[in-house]
Design brief:
The chain contains eleven helices and 22 strands. By secondary structure, it is of the alpha/beta class. Helix 1 (about 10-20) runs parallel beside helix 10 (about 295-315). The protein folds into two domains: about 1-110 and about 250-315, FAD/NAD(P)-binding domain (3-Layer(bba) Sandwich); about 110-250, FAD/NAD(P)-binding domain, CATH 3.50.50.
Length: about 375
């Protein structure tokens, strides 16, 4: 059986490693061939970009060699996909090669699209790329006071990030002794300060306590970088001295180009994690249009389910597990405190008061990421 994994990010790497160990005997005997295609030979720890933006990590600390993270029975190629030919069970790549499969896993991730909002590239800071995080760090270092606006585009991955960046900004300016010279205001597109209701209920009093202002029902329309004005679809104009934006995301270009899903998100069965209408194609992580947050933890839990099911198909001819929407997210709350949100399709998160032990647990997990992505945690 030929199993092809497209995507070498968190989702694809965990899945491939988990599957490689489950099918070690089958790959040795030649019954199974496991192949991964990636667009890069380097693997980035994406949550670390926020730490780079605040000077707590340097860019080189974000990366590891992708091949070194993979089990030896995975055939690895740096060869970006140019076209999915699902009716023929084929994937065509930029090198001109064609890879055939019996089972395909698509874990191509997502991308930011700040260029789709007029003026945003020129007028706002972001931390969703290495270059953006470094630029934001430099801007923060130079900033001496004034109006800081943080606005959120939709959809976006890591939904907790907007809340975390507010706490991080508060701590950062306080540590520099200029918090009293900075006005922090948060702009969110729906009628509460977070999509997840219980997160919004928890965050609102935390914002109030720290003097962080907020405005809801604010959808970004454009940025005027010359006059430093952020404009909303609702007709509100906001003057700023420093603008930080969580940019809108889309799926990868190849997914859109091949019309596999609206906005680059592939329609996916919420329990089986197969592409709708195709039982031989699994969809994993950010690429799926599931009603769950696009986070590393969601990708991790989904990868475990898919790996177990594919291994079971190889061994006994049928899958054995359903995905229940499980997610576990740490939330940094400032002052070396953190909490967490754990939830699934049926049960919303029940957030506890932030504490220091949870903060240090998150710090430790940042270091354990490389163990986690190998599927060992």
């Amino acid at each position: 059986m030929r199993i092809l994994v497209v995507g070498g990010g968190t989702a694809g790497t965990i899945l491939a490693n988990n599957l490689a160990r489950r099918l070690a005997a089958e790959t040795r005997s030649g019954k199974v061939k496991l192949t991964m295609l990636s667009a890069s030979d380097r693997h980035m720890y994406q949550p670390g970009l926020l730490y780079v933006a605040f000077g707590q990590m340097t860019p080189d600390q974000l990366y590891r060699d992708q091949a070194g993270l993979l089990e030896p029975n995975i055939e690895f190629h740096v060869d970006p996909v140019r076209q999915f030919v699902l009716d023929r069970k084929q994937v065509k790549t930029e090198s001109g090669k064609t890879y055939e499969y019996d089972l395909l896993v698509i874990a191509t991730g997502s991308r930011i699209v700040p260029e789709e909002t007029p003026g945003l590239v020129e007028g706002a800071e972001t931390f969703y790329t290495e270059a953006g995080a470094v630029r934001m760090f430099r801007r923060l270092r130079e900033f001496q006071g004034g109006r800081v606006a943080v606005a959120v585009g939709v959809p976006h991955k890591c939904p907790i990030a907007p809340v975390e960046v507010m706490f991080s900004l508060h701590d950062y300016f306080k540590s520099r002794g200029i918090r009293d010279k900075v006005s922090l205001k948060y702009y969110y597109p729906i009628n509460r300060i977070h999509t997840i209701e219980n997160v919004a209920k928890w965050a609102k009093p935390e914002f109030d306590r720290l003097g962080i202002e907020y405005e809801t029902l604010f959808n970004i329309r454009e940025v005027d970088p010359v006059n430093r004005i952020l404009k909303s679809e609702e007709g509100i104009d906001v003057e700023y001295d420093l603008l930080i934006v969580i940019p809108a995301h889309r799926g990868m270009e190849v997914i859109e180009r091949d019309k596999l899903g609206d906005g680059g998100w592939i329609p996916t069965d919420r329990n089986k994690l197969t592409m709708n209408g195709r039982d031989d194609v699994y969809v994993l992580g950010d690429t799926a249009n599931l009603p769950v947050s696009k986070t590393g933890s969601a990708a991790h839990f989904q990868a475990e389910v898919i790996a177990e099911n594919i291994a079971s198909i190889v061994k006994i001819g049928a899958p054995v597990r359903d995905y229940d929407g499980k997610i576990y997210c740490f939330i940094e709350a400032g002052h070396d405190r953190a909490t967490y949100a754990m939830f699934n399709y049926m049960n919303p998160p029940d957030l506890k008061p932030p504490n220091k032990p949870m903060h240090w647990f998150k710090v430790a997990y940042n270091q354990m990421y490389w163990t986690s992505v190998r599927g060992l945690l």
